[in-house]
Amino acid sequence: MSLHRAILTILYISALMFAGAVLVQAFGYYQLALEQRPHSSLHTTMKPGGSWGHGLGILGSAMMLLLFLYSARKRRFCGLRFGKTRHWLNIHIFFGIMGPVFVNLHTSFKIGGIVAVSYYSMMAVMLSGFIGRCLYVKIPRALSGDELTMREMQEKKRSLNQLLVEKYGLDVDFIAEIGTLPGLERGERLCGIAAIFALLKNDLTRVFQMRGVRRRLRCELSALPRQEAGKLLQIIKQQSLLVRKMTFLSTVQPLLHYWHVAHKPFAYVMIIIMFVHIAVVLMFGHQWVF
Ligand code: HEM
After folding, report:
1. Which H, E and C letters describe 88-130, residue by residue?
2. Mind listing the pLDDT tens digit for each residue in 121-152?
3. What three-state secondary structure class fits 147?
């Protein structure tokens, strides 16, 4: 496991355990009707302005701000070049998931007033993030996370093919078969809605195609040591994914562009209203708990 993955796993486990512990502790309180809450012993701590509720709000808001570090790294803001963009995106996703979790706990599941606009924008951006992530991974990228040019893609495809032929002795027909996409005639190009449906169908059927490839490899290359067979399968998977990404690139690129157009304004509305909310709360005399 890489250091990045290990750190991310530790972050997710600790944040989820902490959020889970708060939820278990205050579950009874969150279930109470608004008028019953002041009678609960947890009210002073778990209400949005309570010692814990307030702290959870600060934690969630800090995470919502920290997720913008990805934009700064992507644009090399102030010369920021540290780390790979794809690693920063994973950090963005961590803050983008856990931030709203803590903000939800802060609200004590009671939402109203102008800040509701920020809350629903946050939930919309978070949920749409999952669609963005699906589109993002369909664009061929280098290990750094930067997009590959068409020339780099062709080059990568050629070197993977070469490896399959020269190192593993696979025949050209088999390689061509790996490159076929379920539901598409070889070399067929689709556009518009038809391409989106073909992409979805492909997503759903790819796992069966790979299972077929694995079965065939087991029969034809039974003499290959287990470890080598594993490596070969990884190369085949890479090659098949690359062909798929190249085929659907002209569909996915505009979709990702339109997704950006919808995703970003919600994010900015959320942040602006979040600051207005913080200013109003401080003006009304609430103190920072930390
Ligand atoms: C409320 C939480 C979130 C906010 C406010 C937010 C905000 C943003 C913003 C402003 C961008 C544009 C970055 C840029 O191009 O500079 C972005 C990109 C992106 N976000 Fe989020 N996001 C959130 C949650 C998520 C989640 C939960 C996911 C995934 C599960 C996600 C996945 C992505 C992806 C894939 C991109 C596109 C990266 C790219 O094209 O470079 N986001 N997000």
Report:
1. HHHHHHHHHHHHHHHHHHHHCCCCCCCHHHHHHHHHHHHHHHH
2. 899 999 999 999 999 988 888 777 778 888 88
3. strand
Task: Give the nearest ligand 1 atom to 74 CA.
Answer: 16
How far apart CA 137 and CA 245 sit, in angstroms, is 9
**Ligand 1 proximity of 42 Cβ (cutoff 6 Å):** no
CB-CB neighbours of 255 under 10 Å: 18
Calpha distance 260→279 (Å, rounded):
29
Write the pLDDT tens digit of every residue in 70-112: 999 988 887 778 888 889 999 999 999 999 999 999 999 988 7
Is the CB of residue 74 less than 8 Å from the CB of residue 145?
no
Backbone phi, psi, residue 110, to 5°: -130, 110
CA–CA dist 122, 142 (Å, integer): 30
Q: How far is the CA of 77 from the centre of ligand 1 (A)?
A: 17
The finding on whether 125 has its CB within 6 A of some atom of ligand 1 is yes
Supply the pTM of this predicted model.
Answer: 0.84
Per the CB < 8 A criterion, the answer to whether 74 and 49 are in contact is: no
CA atoms of 224 and 214, how far apart (whole Å): 13
Domain ranges of the chain: 3-143+259-283, 151-257
- The span from the CA of 52 to the CA of 76, in Å, is 36
Q: Is 60 in the pocket of ligand 1 (CB under 6 A)?
A: no
Residues 94, 8: Cα–Cα separation, whole Å? 8
Contacts of 153 (CB under 8 A, 6+ apart): 140, 242, 245, 246
